[in-house]
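Most newcomers find our protein records easier to grasp once they have seen one. Nothing more is needed to start thinking about how sequence determines fold. Here is such a record, shown just as it appears in the course material:
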Amino acid sequence: MNRTAVFIITALLIAACIFPACNQAAKSKLTVACDATWPPFEQVNEQTKELDGFGPELMRAIAAKAGLDIELVNVGFDSLLAGVSQCQYDMAVSSITITEERKKTILFSDPYYAAGQIVTVRKDDDRIKSKDDLPGKTVGGQIGTVGIDEANIIIGKDRVKTFDDVGLAFQALINGQIDAVIADNPVAQLYVNKNKDRLQTAGPIFTNEYYGIAICQKNAYLVPRVNAALKALKDEGFLDKLSKKWIGQ
């Protein structure tokens, strides 16, 4: 190879690295935040101690399909949202509802799951038939979630009790410390199924929501890559398999 050829190739390589794709590829590992307190979507496997559930399994499949090297880290939901908005984390997969408010500070992938809020009450409590019966009651949920946002609207913040873990909210309900929990329907159904003699849902799902992968705004290049991988997985039937595996439907 002559000097001219070497010079041209070197110049082309340097020029290529001016573009974002080269810089993006240089980052060896992407940090993906996950709050593993939201079964069956996000949880810790008791045997392996690894993050498990619908979300982590989907995220690993997306990463493999898109050629991304990721590390899943377990953080609280409130810290997770703040961390992605401040680019402390590159992405997050944690049953994150896509909302206009969140879009102001966070980028989102295409939706991957349709969910909605539902009310859960004690089985021996016949006072609450739906969300319309919640005013005057004490309602709990996980801090930072859409369930808490809805509770604040329905009954006012002074009667809403927040918990770091949604499981603690359901336990408080069972213990009679609160009157109801507002949470995503699949999560609520999981706790009801585990406590059929003590819990029941009250009324229908009353919101239309969609989960998306949250992405730091500085990582806009990830959006088309994640979306392409997500579409391919949908087309292959992988999301249907995940739904049957983790949710039973």
